[in-house]
Design goal:
- With 491 residues, the chain is α/β, with parallel strands linked by helices.
- It contains nine helices and 23 strands.
- A seven-stranded parallel β-sheet has the order 5-8-2-9-10-11-12. It has a five-stranded mixed β-sheet with strand order 15-17-22-19-20, with no helix packed on it.
Length: 491
């Protein structure tokens, strides 16, 4: 009996160690907060969502793409996947290993996966029930960007890049502004690739994603390294990336029935991790009438971009702009980390706290609003901190730059909007002290990360910058905020 009991214990310990070794993959999703969101709301599987995945062909003859851009949907993790392909149909579609890996981060499922260093595991992608609309890059540019057509996707992600702005990169920025669609793109793979942030991620209205280091681990992630994840600023002085994420995921291997491999620390694979978190939030917003403005075709991309950045976790060494404090009001983000590393659970809490109009607000929430073209106009969000001594405000203001609606999609300078974000302490007689502000002359993002006093009333103020001329029209913006602290999470 004792031997039988001992054998049972050994078996249980073996099974436990096997589960701990393999578990659910990619583990990067746990770090990004996706599995935590799933624990709260298991229905957020991407059902009903259309995700646009724009992929480059692997092969070009001259300047002509050879249509080998498709993920290998014969891999068993894609069984049952809803997918459509869009290209010029001049050549038969071919398979891309790069696209296969990216698609396998976004959608699909394999309950009986195997990878030798881990053993058996369950492969659970970001949004397994979403539809993937996969576009060959130049087809997407010619058929959607150039004519200014909306492809009807809920979100668009692309892991590709060029070193300089062009008419089509401005066209993508125009698409984000006109249709309110969130566009997620990879920033580049550090100094070994290009020194400057790559377009379209470097575009003004695109959410640019960098990658954090894993040191070859599938579950431990550290700060981004500029040698591997391209750092800002852009050539015109804007802060990029906007956010960073884990990129080293177990991904499907093209040309095999069910093999997996680590993807490595590349921004190409960090971008779909962020796109996966965003997709879950968009599904939540679209299915909850109280949250639908966060996925609105009218500046909804500003709200979602703001929420993701406000929810981000600051990593070691986070600091606005350059190393000194002299430029902290001018540069809203860290040149390597952006607003920090993706934290899906915190972003989910910001989203579900609900839309709150200017006036008295809770210590967590968001707004989609407009501001008139005059220096007197301002929107004020008033809140009070808890009684503990560890309150910290994170707030992000986002608006779109406006481009012409046709080729070559030049910036409409008369509609250049320059907003600022201020934080004031309020006493019995009104505003008594300007605590912090963010007022970049070139960015269309402002970000605050500021310690707060306990049991104190504050005002977040959105207004036009005094350093720039007023635009000809109104400015739509997305704002989100959260106060963290010992007693803040329950308020």
């Amino acid at each position: 009996m004792a031997r039988r009991f001992l054998n049972l214990v050994v078996i249980l310990l073996f099974c436990t160690s096997l589960a701990m070794a393999g578990g659910v993959q990619p583990a990067a999703f746990d770090v990004a907060g996706l599995y935590k969101i799933s624990d709260i709301d298991p229905n957020l599987t991407g059902k009903g969502l259309n995700i646009g995945l724009v992929c480059r062909s692997d092969t070009y003859i001259g300047s002509e793409p050879q249509n080998d851009y498709r993920p290998d949907i014969s891999h068993k993790c894609f069984k049952g996947l809803k997918v459509s392909f869009y290209d010029d149909q001049a050549l038969a579609g071919g398979v891309s290993s790069h696209s296969t890996a990216i698609a396998s981060i976004l959608a699909g499922f394999d309950a009986n996966a195997f990878y030798k260093p881990l053993g058996d595991f369950s492969y659970k992608t970001a949004v397994p029930d979403a539809r993937l609309n996969v576009y060959e890059f130049w087809h997407f540019i010619v058929d959607y960007v150039f004519p200014g057509r909306w492809p009807q996707d809920d979100l668009i992600t692309m892991s590709l890049g060029w070193s300089s702005e062009a008419w089509w990169t401005r066209g993508i920025d125009n698409m984000a502004d006109r249709f309110g669609v969130l566009i997620v793109a990879s920033i580049g793979n550090g100094k070994a690739s290009y020194d400057l942030p790559l377009y379209p991620a470097a575009g003004t209205n695109v959410l640019a994603v960098g990658v954090v280091n894993s040191a070859d681990s599938l579950s431990e992630f550290n700060i981004p390294d500029a040698n591997h994840s391209t750092a800002g600023p852009t050539l015109d002085g804007r802060c990029k990336p906007d956010i960073v994420a884990p990129g080293n995921c177990l991904v499907a291997v093209a040309g095999t029935d069910g093999l997996y491999r680590p993807s490595g620390d590349y921004s190409s694979f960090a971008a779909p991790v962020v796109a996966g978190v965003a997709s879950v939030l968009i599904q939540k917003a679209k299915t909850d009438p109280n949250l639908q403005f966060a996925a609105s075709p009218f500046a909804g991309n500003c709200v979602m971009k703001s929420i993701l950045m406000t929810g981000a976790k600051k990593l070691v060494g986070w600091h606005k702009g350059y190393s000194t404090a002299n430029d902290d009001y001018e540069y809203p983000l860290d040149f390597r980390q952006g607003a920090g590393m993706i934290d899906g659970l915190t972003a989910y809490k910001v989203l579900t706290a609900g839309m709150q109009r200017d006036g008295d607000v809770k210590i967590i929430g968001w707004d989609l609003n407009m501001i008139d073209p005059n220096y007197i106009e301002e929107k004020v969000y008033k809140f009070q901190t808890a009684g503990d001594s560890h309150n910290q405000l994170t707030a992000t203001l986002v608006w779109n730059k406006v481009y012409e609606d046709q080729y070559p999609f030049n910036l409409q300078l008369n509609l250049w909007r320059d907003l600022q974000l201020q934080l004031w302490i309020i006493n019995e007689t009104g505003r008594s002290e300007l605590v912090d502000y963010s007022d970049s002359p070139v960015d269309n993002v402002e970000h605050l990360y500021t310690p707060l006093d306990p049991n104190t009333t504050y005002e977040l103020v959105v207004s036009h910058s005094l350093n720039s001329p007023l635009p000809d029209g109104i400015t739509a913006y997305g704002l989100s905020w959260r106060v963290s602290g010992e007693n803040s999470e329950s308020r």
